[in-house]
Design a protein that fits this description.
It is an enzyme of class 2 (transferase). Its EC number is 2.7.7.65. 54% of the residues lie in helices and 21% in strands. With 570 residues, the protein is α+β, with helices and mostly antiparallel strands. It has 3 domains: 176 residues, Immunoglobulin-like; 213 residues; 159 residues, Alpha-Beta Plaits. The strands form 5 sheets. Strands 1, 3, 4, 6, 8, 9 and 12 form a 7-stranded mixed β-sheet that branches. A 5-stranded antiparallel β-sheet has the order 2-14-7-11-10, covered by helices on one side. Strands 16-17-15-20-21 form a 5-stranded mixed β-sheet, sandwiched between helices. The radius of gyration is 42 Å and the shape is rod-shaped.
Length: 570
């Protein structure tokens, strides 16, 4: 009875092993071999000291050929059951495309007697025939109808994630020489570097610190994306310990992001509570960054936890700023939420909690790109806000120096600008002429047609003066129906011609008043200013005397002051 029970148990064990092998075996049943998805199994060697004989005796866990096992699986053994169902021997290649971020890879091919071993040390991988553009390639043969086991020992620096592919020679060559192998990563890096150049140009034009912090964030992100997703390995054959210090970019990236937040939201001036939270997480990140210079591996081990804490703090701060009504907070929160979501997916992937796919394995890179684009929008939007503020200030300044009815400069602005033009005339010894004009019988217009029509007459004259003024000339409303024009580089003779043209144009002007035509005239007084002796006030008084003379001699005429001539001959 005991013998029968023992035989039955052995049969069950054999059946279980057969079922397991059948369930996980990779079957080669055609000429083309391009196996990118299949079942394998793995074992985590927490001690990191097991030999091949000891490791293959362990219990392996069934899994897909793409796995992420977290930071506690630094040494992992992968086992592949493979069987050639064809009648021809097959030359095949095992690829590990993510080999660039490992410390060591060892390939074991179990044979009838013993095993064949191929070892790849990443510190010397640049000169190894087993390494090409960041991928490890191990060649093996399968005879007709042969079954065998393959093992891959993978030793990582920090977290363990990889995929294994089984390819024939043709597909292996295509995979290694494929032009589009890193096109997506090159596009990500290209976008980030383009934004860097743009923001450095913005910094040189505006001298805003936010552009520097944003550019440093982009540089850190571009370096980490290129490093983490194999672009640097593919282009420059950089592997192993030589790349470790470059992973500090993953720590520096959130440092510059927080500095950007502090600057663009001005938390130190306006949001002290949020500023203190940002300072605390910034301190932790800086300490971990400094620690990374001395021992990068444990620093990277802490990075995932610090990243989660940073995401919590920065998201909470942006929500708080949004509730306080900051106009940029909603855009930052949207962009940062995209980064948090995709980076959170990546953190779960790196810790081995979720499965291997493109989004999970490239989550941080996707999050960086999306947030970078939104931060670029925030910078552009902030520039627009500042320009709107400047435009409002300019408008207020213009209102302060403009007559509200005619939109011409007022008396205050005239004095400021006229004194400057007088000084220029004195230095250059160029002529300067002043005209004063007044609407004839304006009180009669107001009394006969009403003040509204009187205002229309004033506006019509202002528009005519504006149209008849030249570049560099100063036209102003001195109040009521009185206007002045200052004509630089204009002699008295030319000024008289200009004044006569203006007077004639006004006389020909006709305003429609409910079918009736309203015409009006102006009187003009002028003076050629002696810039060596006279002030603007003196010139205004002389021109006013000439205007008074024009009024007394019948109106609708031009008179120039003779007082200045007398002063020259005295």
């Amino acid at each position: 009875m005991a013998g029968l029970l023992k035989t039955f148990v052995m049969m069950l064990v054999f059946a279980a092993q057969f079922a397991y092998a059948s369930r996980s075996a990779v079957l080669i049943d055609s000429h083309d071999v391009n196996l990118t998805h299949f079942q394998m199994s793995y074992f985590i060697d927490h001690s990191g000291t097991l030999s091949f004989e000891e490791a293959r005796a362990q219990t392996f866990t069934l899994s897909p050929n793409q796995v992420s096992l977290g930071t506690e699986a630094k040494t992992t053994w992968s086992q592949i059951e493979i069987k050639n169902l064809t009648d021809q021997p097959r030359r095949l290649f095992l690829h590990q495309p993510q080999a660039y971020h490992n410390r060591q890879l060892v390939f074991y091919e179990q044979q009838t007697e013993g095993y064949k071993q191929q070892q790849l040390e990443m510190d010397t991988a640049a000169s190894s025939p087993l390494m090409y553009r960041g991928s490890a390639i191990f060649e093996f043969w399968l005879d007709a109808k042969e079954s065998k086991r393959l093992y891959v020992k993978s030793v990582s620096f920090s977290h363990q994630w990889f995929s294994l592919l089984i390819l024939d020679e043709d597909h292996s060559r295509r995979a290694l020489l494929g032009i589009g192998a890193h096109n997506d990563i090159a596009l990500m890096v290209g976008i980030l570097l383009a934004l860097v150049v743009y923001n450095f140009l913005l910094y040189f034009s505006s001298n805003k610190r936010e552009n520097i912090f944003y550019s440093l964030y982009l540089i850190s992100g571009a370096l980490w994306v290129a490093l983490s997703y194999g672009l640097l390995a593919s282009l420059f054959n950089i592997y192993g310990a030589d790349t470790l210090k470059m992973h500090l970019s993953l720590i520096s990236m959130p440092i510059f992001l927080i500095l950007f937040m502090m600057d663009i939201f001005q938390t130190g001036k306006h949001h002290l509570r949020e500023h203190r939270f940002l300072q605390c997480i910034l301190l932790l990140l800086v300490l971990n960054f400094i620690y990374g210079f001395f021992d990068i591996v444990p620093a990277l081990r802490h990075t995932s936890s610090l990243a989660a804490l940073m995401m919590l703090v920065t998201t909470s701060v942006s929500i708080s700023l949004l509730r306080k009504g900051d106009p940029l907070a909603k855009y930052f929160l949207f962009g940062h939420s995209l980064f948090v979501v995709f980076s959170g997916i990546a953190v779960l992937f790196y810790k081995g909690i979720i499965s291997f796919n493109y989004i999970s394995s490239h989550g941080v890179g996707i999050g960086i790109i999306l947030e970078s684009l939104m931060l670029a929008f925030i910078i552009s939007y902030r520039i627009k806000i500042l320009e709107d503020i400047k435009a409002s200030q300019d408008e207020l300044k213009l209102l302060a120096v403009t007559d509200p009815l005619t939109q011409l400069y007022n008396r205050r602005y005239f004095y400021t600008e006229a004194n400057y033009l007088l000084e220029q005339a004195r230095k250059t010894r160029m002529p300067l002429t002043l005209l004063i004009m007044d609407i004839d019988r304006f009180k009669a217009i107001n009394d006969g047609y009403g003040h509204q029509v009187g205002d229309q007459v004033i506006v019509a004259l202002a528009n005519l003066l504006r149209l008849n003024s030249r570049d560099g000339e100063l036209v102003a409303c001195f109040g009521g129906e009185e206007f002045v024009m200052l004509l630089p580089n204009t002699s008295e003779e030319k000024a008289q011609q200009r004044a006569e043209q203006i007077r004639s144009a006004v006389q020909s002007l006709s305003l429609d008043q409910q079918g009736d035509s309203l015409n009006f005239t102006i009187s003009i007084g002028g003076v050629a200013i002696n810039s060596e002796r006279e002030t603007i006030d003196t010139a205004l008084n002389l021109a006013d005397i000439a205007l008074y003379e024009a009024k007394n001699t019948g109106r609708n005429c031009v008179r120039f002051s003779e007082c200045q001539l007398a002063s020259l001959t005295s």
